[in-house]
Structures are given as C-alpha cells and as structure tokens.
Design a protein that fits this description.
heterodimer, A: alpha+beta, Four Helix Bundle (Hemerythrin (Met), subunit A), 5 domains, six-stranded mixed β-sheet, five-stranded mixed β-sheet, 25 helices, globular, B: mainly beta, OB fold (Dihydrolipoamide Acetyltransferase, E2P), 11 strands, CheW-like_dom_sf (chain B), CheW (chain B), CheW-lke_dom (chain B), cytoplasm (chain B), chemotaxis (chain B)
Chain lengths: ~725, ~160
C-alpha cells in the first residue's frame, strides 16, 4: 500500500483543521476563553501533528507540536491569552498553511521561516511560562500568599492546584488517571528508539523516573496527556504491543511524597533546571496577571471550578464526532461525471420528446404521458445533481473576519464585520473565484470607505464602523453585497482624477456613470498609496474577474453614508443561458448575458472607415461591425450585411455588432470544456451539445472583439491570419 | 474469460501484443489495441475555425467533446472521401480521448516481438519517432504507429504544449 495515496486526504483535512483553528482563534473571547473553543483549537493542532508525523512531514510536525504545547498550557489556564499571543498563533497558523502548501507541491518548507517561528514560539513560552516549550513547570516551594493571589489559571505549582489543572484534561471516567501519573513500559525497544521515546515523553509531560534495560524499560511520567494521546504519539516509533501504559496513583500528599521513590525525581529535576531565571520571569508574569480576579478564588475552590469546564470540553468532542458523519468527501471529478451523465440524459430525453411530439396524442396517450413524466423527472434529477456542487457562501465569508481583524489593527480603525446570508449557495468553482475580487472590495471599504474613529465621531456617527457582507439569491443569480457605512465616494475627486488620467468626463455625468469610472485601469483616488490599497490595480481587475465569471458589478454610494458594491453572478458555470445563431450552415451559441439587442441593418446605417472597417450606427452610436464568418472563416455565409442580422454585444465594457446569418432560438445549454480533450480555440470559450446530439461551439464575445482589433490594427491582414494559423500549428 | 487469460499468457510468453489494423488508402497501419477505446462511424463533426486542416473538428461522444483527426490528410493521402466505410477509431492517449479517421478497420492481430522489425530512419511526413516498428506478416507489411507519441506531438497541435 502506497502511503502517498493518502497525502491528498491529509492535506485537505489539515486545511480544514487550520481553517477551524483560525475561526476559533478569532472568535475567542480573551477575557473569558471558552474552554470548549480552546479544546477545539488544541484538537486541530493535535490532529495535524499526528497526520504530519505519520506522513513524515517533520517540519510541519514540529511546528504544530510547539503550537500544541502552548495551546495545551492555554487550555489548562497556565498561559493567559492576550491579543498579541493570539496574533502569534494566527501567524503560526499561516506558517502551517505555507508548510502544507510546500509539502503538497512536493517541496520542503522554507527552513528560515520555520526557524523564525520556532524562535518566536519558544520565546513566548519562556516569557509567559518561565520555561521552554515541552517541559513542565518547575515545582517549587510556593510562598503561601502566592497561592491565594493567583488566579487558578496561572502556573500551578501547588500540589492541589496541579491536581486540579491536570483534572481538566484527564478522562473523567478514569479515576486513577486524574493524578496524571503514568507508568509507561517499553518492551524490547532498542537503545536508540528508547532515547527518542523518552525524549518524546519529556515533551508530553515530566519524566519522573526511568530505569530498566532493552527488554523492559519503565518510565514514570507525570503528564496532562491522556493514555490514548501518549500511545498515539509513541506509535510513530514503536508497535502498540511494545507499549504498556498504565495510570498509577500520584504521590499527592505529604506521606506519599515522603516515602515514594517517585517523589525524589521531581525534587532532583527542580535542582537541575535553570530555575532562578525561569521562575523569576514566571513571577513577573504572575505579578502582571489580573490581580482583581484572584482574591475571589481560594485554592480550595479551584477543584470544582476547574472540573466543570473539563466535562464541557469532553461533551464538545463527542458532539463534533457525531456531526462529521453527516457529510461525505467526494472527488469533484465524480460529481462532474454525474452532471455530465445527467446532461446526456436530458439531451436524450429531448430527442425522444421531439419524436413523440410528432405522434398522434389520441393513439399514443400513454407514451405521451410517460414522456411528460420522464421530462419532469429528468429536470428534477438535473436540479438535485447540480445542487451537489453548491456550497454555502459561508465558505467565502469565513475568511473575512481574519482580514478585517488584521487590517483594522493596521489602519487604526474600529470596524465591526457583519455577515448575512451565509447559507446562500453558490457553485463551488465560483466560490473559489469570487474570493479574490471580494477581498479587493472589502479592503477598499476598510481602507477608503470607513473613516478613522475620530472622524466618524465628529460626523456624528458611532466610532465603530460597520462592514456588511451579504448574499442572497435573485432569480438564477446570486447577489453579493459589500456595504460600508463610511464616507461614500467623492464625485469631485473621481471626476478630477478621471480627467487627470485622460478619460473623457463631464460634470453632467450621472452618479452611476461616475462610479463606473473607478473600474478603469490605474484608477485610485486614495491620497496616499497605503499598504492596504490605493495602487490603482484593483477595481479594474475586480471587474474583469467578475465579468469572466459571467457576472457584473455595480456601485451605489451616498456621501457621508457609505458605499455599497453589488456583485451579481450566475449560480453556476455549468449551465449557460444561450442564444443560438446561424452562420453559413454552422450553429453557434452566444451567451445571452452579453446580448443587448439584435436588428437587421439597413444600408444607410452602415458606414465604412479606413477602407475595410465598417461601423454600424445604432441610435446615435457608432459600433464596430464584425462579421462572424470573417473571424471564423465560414464558407457559404451571407455576405451582404443588409441580409444579415446584427447582434449588439457587450464585452469587457466595449460594444460591437456581430453579423450573423440568422437567429435560431434561446435555450439553456450545458457547458462542456473543449480543453479536456483538445485545446483552447481562439474566439471559442467552450462547447455544448444540442438536442440532436451534435456539438455547437460557444462564442467568446471578448475574444472575437480582440481578434478583430488585432486584424484591423495590422495592415497586412492576410499575413496575420496566416501567421495565426501557424501559431495554432506550432 | 478463459480466452482472455490465454491471450494474456501468450502475451507474457512470447512478448506478443495485439494490434488493431486499419487502412489508409492502400496502406496498412496498426495501433496497440489497448489504446483503442471504441470504433464508430464518421458523423456529426463540428468544424473548428482556424485549426489545421487535418483536424476535422469535434464530435459528441456520449457527452464528451472529442476532437477528430483525419490521418489521411495528415499523411498526405491523395484520396480523402467520407463514405459508409469511413470509420473513426477512438483512442485513449495521455488521459485524452481523440478520434482518428481512417478508411477502414480490417482486423485485430497478434504480433510477436520477432515479427516486428525496426522502422527505417526516414520518412518526411511520418517521422520514425512516431513509429514503433514495421510488422511483417507473410506478404503484408503493417506500419505500427506509436499513437500516443504521434497524437501528443507538437505538429498535431492537439495538446497545448507546455512551453507555450
């Protein structure tokens, strides 16, 4: 069995886990961390570590290991989380993502970045906990007043405290395990492996005692980890049957401490460790810890206080496990295959339908009824299958809390993010492509839209700005809005900038037209180019990307009240509303969304320019007239423009008239990729299958215009065509 | 089932392979049968503009859009006609499905390695690179085409080249 087969599953899972981790980190209430959430974050790190270990991704494993340890202290309350610590965790999460990407591409992760994050994490551990990641706090004789002063969450040296904090992560049903003392027996383990194992055990907890030989080696460990956890880690090195882990009673009170051998070990380790420095910093940290919370908690009351969250955490884990079985992971190709087959079924059904419609209904009643039933079932089936590809917008929206958090910090603004309609569904392939444009829009709103808190206050608005992301279905489209309650767009600024950039503008332009100007390339009215935006490469890309998805974008803005950007997208790319047209004997499909109108041109409206070029006058507008048969070299097409139909199309903000022989009809078509078995064809975006089973090509509106301009710009028109031919061949 | 097993055993024993033999004009060619997905008639091909002349267009193969290549045009044969005998061999190469138009399919033959002679180092229209060898069978000569190499080659323009 080849282990690499499971890489992809691991990468996917790890990615999801990292996403979960980020979400929980962002949601975490620092004043009162929810133990369930801390557990969830810890579990995510732990699972990734386990997987990374199995597949031998050592850098990933080590990074998660360090993070996991810190998280473990956090959930035990020994590490008090602050904003900068959470920021560091988030940074680590990003690093893990990078490492994951590196492994996915078969490369080793950047060692410098790894070293840097290790340093930072270790430093944090030292500063906050007074010891390195992976070793337990030094037990020390604790001055009595400190026990009283400390909140239960601080580094617990007192035995009672220790027991309590241990209890938080122990399995409740295992009463003995509450002590946190475990005897790990290694059977027939080589010296080298044993060293590794003991070291690994040292990471999990404190090795209190170790003795024995290769055949039987006993380690007494005090650890917050459960037996299963330890076994899971050790199994990377040894077989389960070589291990025997048993919980043993801990020498908790004075009498056991006095007589048990085990008690001697901690005492020794206290002396060995560089205690003075470490505990000094620990003291400092404890002094800084919120003192007002502490006095209310007496050492004796710690136990029940800590036990409750532990139970809650356990319940959460069980809940999560139950929810997982509700979904299955299926490769996209399988779904696409089903969609293809259903598309075929629809075609066959419409062929049958056509035949059946020619029959006499009276004579073939049952057949006609059956056909109607088949049609309905086929459509239902198609709809259900298409819905498999749909994912909720939450998939997109969930990455914005992080962005907003990072940017508000950077910009010094106060912004609240509101999301609406997260459950609105959209085709998976579209959700992936909408992320970048939406990120641009959100950045713009944060940077230019919402004002600084002081400015807002002066304008009589709440200091905290609001950014709303919403999604809703509208007919066959999805409407996504990015709305801010900032200062709105400045008409004068945009007009001035547009004039400066050489665009033709006039003061009489409507607001809508003015707002459209910001989608022009190189347009930014930001007074200063900031880290966040203002370089003027954004909005034109946003518009282009959205148009490439068959959607469009519009802006509404009110001075002093805010700006709303509306993105309208088709629900899916797999089906297209098309208009079929004829040129010569060939049938082509035009995307209906690009068709503005169609008309039969008269000779009076056709003007020639610079010899070959023709323009068509449509209501005071002169549009380039492009003959489809010229572009695609179609024989037998109508040459006389007045006998043709001119379809007015809009693509990438430009309009032109396309001459075709005839309009055939409108229909929904299933989009098929030409590149699966062939290659990209100029002027063609994809293909589809018509009711009679033949293939029709879907025209690429923007590409036709580009090809036309290329030819028009070159005086040696014929040569260009020839060289293009060669391009195709070579 | 037993036939297949026997065939498989035979293949191992004598290093022999099965080939689909087809004709282009009066010449006989052969391709590895394991690359062949199916054989169908030539019909309903949609032309693709600005493509080389030997690419006839695309057709619908049960929901999959498949390009159709006419090897007769590619190999500069004099007579290119589309009639009842004209068939399309649908081959599966390099994770792609491609149809090739030929004048007719004659039979399936098993050739052992000693029946296959190396291809001569010449040929202007069909470079020796695309040949696995020449099969000699009594008085017949079969040109054994390495269909995968041929169809993924740059000059066939079927596959977008990595370098571009």
């Amino acid at each position: 069995m080849d282990i690499t087969e499971f890489y992809e599953t691991f990468f996917e899972e790890a990615e999801e886990l990292l996403g979960d981790m980020e979400r929980h980190l962002l949601e975490l209430d620092l004043d009162e961390p929810d133990p369930e959430q801390l557990n969830a974050i810890f579990r995510a790190a732990h699972s990734i570590k386990g997987g990374a270990g199995t597949f031998g991704f050592s850098v990933l494993q080590e990074t998660t290991h360090m993070l996991e340890n810190l998280l473990d202290y956090a959930r035990q309350g020994e590490l008090i989380l602050r904003t900068d610590i959470v920021d560091l965790f988030l940074e680590t999460k990003d690093m893990l993502n990078d490492q994951l990407d590196a492994y996915r591409n078969g490369a080793e992760p950047d060692p410098e970045a790894f070293a840097r994050i290790c340093q930072t994490l270790k430093k944090l551990a030292l500063e906050e906990l007074g010891h390195g990641v992976g070793s337990e706090p030094e037990a020390d004789t604790v001055p009595p007043e400190r026990v009283a002063d400390e909140p239960p969450s601080s580094a617990a040296e007192d035995k009672v405290d220790e027991e309590a904090s241990e209890g938080q992560t122990q399995e409740v049903q295992d009463a003995v395990a509450d002590s946190g003392w475990l005897r790990v027996v290694l059977l027939n383990v080589s010296d080298k492996d044993r060293e590794l194992l003991v070291e690994e055990l040292g990471n999990l907890g404190e090795v209190k005692e170790q003795h024995g030989d290769a055949a039987r080696y006993e380690v007494v460990l005090e650890s917050a980890s459960s037996r299963d956890d330890i076994e899971a880690v050790m199994c990377f090195i040894v077989e389960p049957e070589q291990l025997d882990i048993a919980a043993i009673a801990a020498p908790t009170d004075e009498t056991t401490q006095g007589e048990a051998d085990a008690a001697a070990a901690p005492a020794v380790s206290q002396d060995d460790t560089p205690a003075p420095e470490a505990s000094a910093s620990a003291d400092a940290e404890q002094a800084a810890a919120p003192a007002e919370k502490a006095p209310t908690q007496a050492a004796s009351s710690d136990k029940p206080a800590n036990a409750a969250p532990a139970n809650k955490g356990g319940g959460g884990a069980k809940k999560k496990a139950g929810a997982e079985s509700a979904t299955i992971r299926v490769p996209v190709e399988k779904v696409d295959q089903i969609i293809n087959l259903v598309g075929e079924l629809i075609i066959t059904q419409s062929m049958l339908d056509q035949t059946a419609s020619e029959l006499d209904v009276a004579a073939h009643g049952p057949l006609v009824n059956g056909m109607n039933l088949l049609q309905r079932n086929a459509r239902d089936l198609q709809e259900s299958v298409m819905s498999i590809r749909m994912v909720p917008m939450d998939y997109v929206f969930s990455r914005f809390p992080r962005l907003v958090r990072d940017l508000t910090g950077k910009l010094g603004k106060e912004i609240e993010l509101v999301t609406e309609g997260q459950s609105t569904e959209l085709d998976k392939s579209l959700t992936e492509r909408i992320i970048d444009p939406l990120t641009h829009l959100v950045r713009n709103s944060l940077d230019h839209g919402i004002e600084m808190p002081d400015v807002r206050e002066a304008a009589g608005k709440p200091r905290t700005g609001q950014l709303t992301l919403s999604a809703q279905h509208q007919g066959g489209n999805i409407l996504i809005e990015v709305k801010d309650d900032g200062g709105g767009l400045s008409r004068d600024k945009i007009l001035a900038k547009a004039a400066h950039n050489g665009l033709t503008v006039s003061d009489s332009m409507s607001d809508d037209e003015v707002w459209q100007l910001i989608f022009a390339a190189g347009f930014s009215t930001a007074d200063q180019v900031s880290d966040v935006s203002g370089r003027g490469v954004g909005m034109d890309v946003v518009k282009r990307n959205i148009q490439a998805m068959g959607g469009h974008v519009e802006i509404q803005s009110w001075p002093g009240k805010g700006t709303t950007t509306r993105v309208v997208l088709p629900l899916t790319l797999a089906i297209l509303d098309g208009m079929s047209i004829k040129s010569g004997s060939e049938i082509f499909i035009l995307p209906l969304s690009a068709v503005l109108e169609s008309l039969q041109p008269s000779n009076d409206d056709i003007y020639s320019m610079a010899g070959n070029d023709k323009l068509l006058k449509v209501r005071d507008e002169y549009l380039p007239l492009i003959a489809l048969h010229d572009i695609l070299h179609i024989d037998g097409a109508e040459q006389d423009p007045t006998q043709c139909i001119a379809v007015i199309l809009q693509a990438e903000g430009r309009r032109y008239a396309l001459l075709v022989d005839d309009l055939v009809g409108q229909q929904q078509v299933v989009v098929k990729n030409l590149e699966t078995n062939y290659r990209k064809v100029p002027a063609i975006s994809a293909a589809t299958i018509l009711g009679d089973g033949s293939v029709a090509l879907i025209l690429d509106i923007a590409d036709i215009n580009r090809l036309h301009r290329q030819r028009a710009n070159s005086p040696k028109h014929a040569e260009l065509t020839a060289s293009r031919q060669e391009d195709v061949v070579s | 089932m037993s036939d297949m097993t026997q065939a498989a055993e035979a293949a191992i024993d004598t290093q022999s392979q099965e080939y689909l033999v087809f004709s282009l004009g009066s010449e006989e060619y052969a391709v590895d049968i394991l690359k062949v997905q199916e054989i169908r008639g030539y019909e309903n091909v949609t032309r693709i503009a600005n493509a080389p002349d030997f690419i006839k267009g695309v057709t619908n193969l049960r929901g999959v859009i498949v390009p159709i290549v006419d090897l007769r045009i590619k190999f500069h044969l004099d007579k290119v006609e589309y009639e009842g005998q004209t068939v399309v061999i649908v081959v599966n190469v390099a994770d792609r499905v491609v149809g090739i138009v030929v004048d007719g399919v004659s039979d399936v033959m098993t050739l052992s390695s000693d029946q296959i002679k190396p291809a001569p180092e010449f040929g202007e229209t069909l470079s020796a690179d695309y040949l696995s060898g020449l099969g000699s069978l009594e008085d017949r000569m079969l040109v054994i085409v390495d269909i995968e190499k041929l169809l993924t080659s740059e000059e066939m323009a079927l596959v977008e080249q990595q370098a571009q």
